[in-house]
Write a structure and sequence with these properties.
Strand content: 5-15%
Order of helices and strands: HHHHHHHHHHEHEEHEEEHHHEEHHHHHEE
Largest sheet: 4 strands, mixed
């Protein structure tokens, strides 16, 4: 488990899917780097074309051997030494253009970041130092590329790790709130099954207590205090809006005998809206201050996911429930960080070894990307995946603008014997984002997104001041490699989500069953205690009670004892079956004390080895 936020590592939560994605990234990026290196060897005349192709084929064969070794558990430190040597050899072979060789170590940096976190900084450090020494020994100019591109892989791995872990964190925190809210409803239903209705055991016992009054003494029923307490049990955990309103209604109506002040909430349009504990308390305070009476309509004006600000209309009054920072998590969506990374890439156009675009133009593009990323973050927080179409449209506008401006203002025309194509940067991040968001789009929106990618690329290519050659098209392997990696990431999310949802569903069902049983047990325990007190009062003060009422008191208590025995007899098998059916893996999540994480045993499978508990231990 990681220290950050008490979360399990992503490689523990989704081991199989993470391994699949890492292998996809390894194969795609290494293949793209090999093709680029072999093409530049032939284009610059370092090797004859036939020998350059042979070198590329041998390098690809080496990658296949490496992939098999990785599957068998090749240690990261051994991979680091082999990859650093690989980068150094190819850098010395090319001499002046070492960006493509440096990307050979990027998959290792991503892998190490997922497994080791920030300690993976050793990958760019070792690769950069070893390659710099090799370039110096072979009398080639130094370059920062062997350090920068593995660092890019490191940052990408950390972003992937952070994104997935926060995604699981928010998913489980929301599921825990839903579980607690559903359990609260089930508890109310269990209590209602015994305490509500015509002539229930609670009613019989409540009517009996006034008969036990002694001369000169007031006799208060313990059931009265219990009825007043029912609405206060949900103040320390999340609730559905409908449940919170019902509980406040019960508490308000039971507070006094004046029926004219009673409140009855009408149908609630957003009754299943989740409120955080702080928002439940804020709702209760607001309702008490409104002075409500009679039938009160309720509807949502502006609702959002758990923990965010909620705006309601209650009886014509506008009620704002402020955001609760304890439950409001950041936007867990791949779009905002990808757009921001695209903005950083816009600045790279100004790098002398890249496109040599004026910094004023790339700076403006970067600022625009950061602004869109911030806007996208807020859209996802409020609307979730429903915001994906407009986020993709905004990103497409920025990406197309980046491609056109960078191509029109490029200063470098050739690098490594190949024509520079600045618009490829647009495809490097826009194509993966389109692949990730594609399932959330309509058929028409999908067609529009793909058409926009093609038209933007073709239009930018038409702005190139020189003609493209056949060898130049090999650089298209880069956006293809990144896009295939994004597809693997999308598959990871879907495959991981299925297993996680199954566990959450089982926990939800167990909470409902347990809540219903707990509600009934609460009433039965209270009735038993009240019955014991009534029996004790009759036994100790029988001589002081009204003789005319004693037969009726005995009859009613006998009725209570018979009904209580029947209920207990019917309740015991129910509780025994519930305990027997309960999944022992879920019991670990119900520890009232201890760390914030409760790890499920490995029986759940390698893809889901751990689950965090509720964010707030009070929810237990």
């Amino acid at each position: 488990m990681t220290v950050l936020d008490g979360l399990p590592r992503v490689t523990e939560v989704a081991a199989e899917a993470a391994t699949y994605t890492l292998r996809q990234i390894f194969f795609n990026l290494r293949l793209a780097a090999r093709i680029a290196c072999a093409t530049m060897l032939g284009a610059t005349g370092v090797l004859p074309p036939a020998e350059a192709v042979a070198a590329g084929v041998l390098a690809c064969a080496w990658d296949v051997v490496m992939l098999r070794a990785i599957k068998r558990g090749l240690a990261l430190r051994h991979r680091l030494l082999l990859d650093a040597a690989d980068v150094a050899i190819w850098s010395c072979a090319l001499g002046y253009q070492v960006d493509a060789p440096a990307l050979i170590a990027a998959p290792l940096a991503i892998d190490a970041a997922l497994l080791r976190g920030v300690r993976a900084v050793a990958v760019p450090l070792v690769t950069g130092i070893l390659t710099a020494g090799a370039l110096r020994l072979t009398h080639h100019p130094p370059s920062l590329a062997p350090f920068l591109w593995p660092s890019f892989g490191l940052v990408s791995g950390l972003v992937i790790r952070h994104y997935l872990e926060r995604r699981v964190h928010l998913r489980l925190r929301t599921a825990e709130a839903e579980r607690q809210a559903a359990r609260s409803q089930a508890v109310l239903a269990g209590r209602h099954s015994l305490a509500a209705g015509a002539d229930t055991i609670v009613d019989v016992l409540t009517r009996t207590w006034p008969l036990l009054a002694l001369p000169g003494h007031q006799t208060g029923s313990p059931l009265t205090a219990w009825r007043m307490r029912l609405a206060q049990d949900a103040c320390d955990h999340a609730e559905y809006l409908r449940t919170a309103l019902l509980q406040w209604e019960q508490q308000h109506n039971a507070a006094g005998p004046d029926l004219s002040r009673d409140v009855e909430f009408g149908p609630v349009d957003d009754g299943v809206l989740l409120l955080s504990p702080g928002q439940v308390a804020a709702l209760g305070t607001a309702l008490s201050d409104l002075g409500l009476s009679g039938r009160v309509p309720v509807r949502g004006i502006r609702t959002a996911p758990l923990g965010n600000e909620q705006v309601l209309s209650i009886g014509g009054h506008r009620v704002t429930l402020p955001a609760d920072p304890r439950t409001c998590g950041p936007a867990l969506d791949l779009g905002p960080p990808v757009i921001a990374i695209g903005g950083v890439g816009s600045l790279a156009h100004s790098w002398p070894d890249m496109d040599k675009v004026p910094l004023a133009a790339t700076g403006a593009l970067a600022l625009l990307a950061f602004a869109i990323a911030l806007w996208a973050h807020r859209q996802v927080v409020r609307h979730g995946s429903a915001a994906h179409p407009r986020i993709l449209a905004a990103a497409m506008v920025h990406g197309s603008l980046d491609a056109i401006v960078s191509t029109a203002l490029m200063g470098n025309l050739m690098t490594g014997g190949l024509t520079r194509m600045p618009f490829l940067h647009f495809l490097l991040w826009m194509s993966p984002l389109t692949v990730v968001y594609l399932p959330d789009l309509t058929a028409r929106a999908r067609a529009a997104a793909i058409t926009a990618l093609i038209l933007s690329s073709a239009g930018s290519a038409a702005l190139l001041p020189v003609s493209l050659h056949a060898a130049d098209f090999t650089t298209l392997v880069w956006p293809l490699a990144f896009t295939m990696g994004a597809r693997g990431m999308r598959d990871l999310l879907y495959r991981d989500g299925a297993t996680l949802s199954a566990v959450i569903s089982r926990e939800h069902e167990a909470a409902v069953e347990g809540g219903y049983a707990a509600g009934r047990a609460d009433v039965l325990h209270l009735v038993e205690r009240a019955t014991h007190e009534a029996d004790d009062r009759v036994r100790r003060h029988r001589g002081r009670l009204d003789p005319c009422l004693l037969p009726e008191i005995d009859r009613r208590l006998a009725v209570v004892h018979r009904r209580l025995a029947a209920l207990r007899k019917a309740e015991d098998p129910r509780l025994a079956a519930l305990r027997k059916a309960e999944d022992p893996r879920l019991a670990a999540l119900r520890k009232a004390e201890g760390p914030r994480l409760a790890v499920l045993p490995e029986a759940e499978g390698p893809r889901l080895a751990a689950l965090p508990k509720a964010e707030d231990p009070r929810l237990s």
